Amino acid sequence: MSGHSKWANIKRRKAAVDAQKGRIFTRLTREIIVAARQGGGNPESNMRLKTAIEKARAANLPVENIQRAIARGTGELEGVNYEELVYEGFGPGGVAVIVDAMTDNRNRTTADVRHIFQKHGGSLGETGSVAWMFDRKGVITVNAEAAKVSEDDMILVAADAGAEDVSLEDGVFEITTDATDLEKVRAALEKQGIPVESAEVTRVPKTTVSLSGEAAEKVLRLADALEEHDDVQEVFMNADIQENG
Q1: Side-chain half-sphere of 153: how many Cα atoms within 13 Å?
Q2: For the chain, N or C: smaller number of CB within 10 Å?
């Protein structure tokens, strides 16, 4: 899981920058709209919506914006009809890349994503070309200082709740679960008084490609370019970035 942890740490730092630039508000709003459209406007019965709202609150998205996004998703308010798209491809060094997007114009977004891959030394692949390299997993993050528990105690609590793996890096516990066990493990942690920073179902690479130096920089430039696109929600890679390389 080390490769995922390093990439996750990089993504957390990038998310902080995105928040400063206001990009994250647009992405969170779209996620709430789509989640509400697919599963209804009640977060207690719609886990995807519940997660989206929690992420929105953590990013300080105003309550009225959240409520408006839910209303648009359920059809109470008129709004743009977003379509979910998944792109698969390869980046520099043979790194596998998955891009989750939401768009109101499939042709435009597909052309843009293909251009970004080509410009940064990658290539857009066919559906299924890299998805098999990733597992759908639940990932919970906990600030180690706020948790006030040792790594051994965290491992015991998480394992008893059914977690698959626990790692500690850069002051953050990352707990991996089967996708179906995410809420059960989160509830168990919170019952023990351990504050959860984030909890979501995500894509975790089965194996990673180790990169450093110029190769790592090229991959990160591709990730930056993809994430800067307005229609892109998330970027996943199986890159094991050696930050000291």
Answers
A1: 9
A2: C
Instruction: Find the helix or strand (DSSP H, E) in which 167 lies.
Output: strand 165-169
* Closest C-alpha among 208, 211, 209, 205 to residue 244: 211
pLDDT (0 to 100) of residue 33: 94
**What is the DSSP code (8-state) at residue 124?**
E
User: Coil, strand, or helix at residue 178?
Assistant: strand
Domains 2-74 and 83-132+206-241 share a fold: no
Q: Under CATH, which number does the domain 2-74 receive?
A: 1.10.10.200
Report domain extents, the chain. 2-74, 83-132+206-241, 134-205
Closest CA to 55 of 201, 173, 230: 201
Confidence of residue 238 (pLDDT cuts 50, 70, 90): very high
Beta bridge partners of 180: none
